[in-house]
Design brief:
Keywords: FAD, Flavoprotein, Oxidoreductase
Low-confidence stretches: none
Pfam family, one: FAD_binding_4
Oligomer: single chain
Number of helices: 5
Strand order of the largest sheet: 7-4-6-5-8
Order of helices and strands: HHEEHEEHEEEHE
Protein name: Fad binding domain protein
Distance between the termini: 48 Å
GO molecular function, one term: FAD binding
Organism: Colletotrichum incanum
């Protein structure tokens, strides 16, 4: 059995859930906050209460991504699901292919037939390559079934890359690898960016 948790073993389920909890499988299961039936909470006056859709619904709503500002959560009742091996593929794109990669990534979430595949998840990152002194664009493909090359990823995989690794494994095994890559002693070099697609005036 599995729960919509983090992708790194350093991330605890409690804090992850209280923060909202984005997931590579959000298409299928939603965020962590969507999978909590109720919270057991110790309030500032020491009272222990249950927060759910029917009991203390205002507190329940506040705790859905609101962090730990409303009390100390001592227990969660959550939805779990069966999950075996999944596909995880990480790619570093050729620098002059950034626009093409972004266009294909946008289609994953908007194009009919692609966006309808609830097993698909996709993340993109800008990372700083310290050795070369440049920023690089990387992408992480996820598929909630053990399929190495799901058709939904065909277009994005046509974008030239400098490196790609694909693994079929359980989430537990994948997070163990993440722990080795992101040890706390290392300086993080990945950054979040937001972009908004727009119509190409040339088309």
């Amino acid at each position: 059995m599995s729960y919509v948790g983090g992708r790194s073993p350093q991330v605890g389920a409690g804090g992850f859930t209280l923060g909202g909890g984005t997931s590579p499988f959000a298409n299928k299961y939603g965020w962590a906050l969507d999978n909590v039936y109720e919270y057991e909470v110790v309030l500032a006056n020491g009272t222990v209460v249950t927060a759910s859709e029917t009991l203390n619904p205002d507190l329940y709503f506040a705790l859905r991504g609101g962090g730990s500002n409303f009390g100390i959560v001592t227990a969660f009742t959550v939805r779990v699901f069966q999950q075996g091996r999944v596909m995880s593929s990480r790619a570093t794109y050729v620098p002059d292919q950034t626009e093409r990669a972004l266009d294909n990534a946008f289609e994953l979430f908007t194009k009919p037939g692609l966006a309808d595949d609830e097993n698909m998840g996709f993340d993109m990152y800008y990372a700083y390559n310290q050795a070369e002194g440049e920023f690089i664009l990387t992408g992480s493909e996820w598929y909630e079934k053990p399929v190495a090359s799901p058709p939904v990823c065909d277009a994005i995989r046509q974008v030239p890359t400098t490196r790609r690794s694909t693994t079929l494994a359980t989430m537990a095994n994948l997070t163990s690898v993440s722990q080795q890559l992101h040890r706390s002693s290392l300086v993080r070099n990945a950054f979040c960016v937001a972009f908004s697609p727009f119509a190409n005036p040339k088309s």
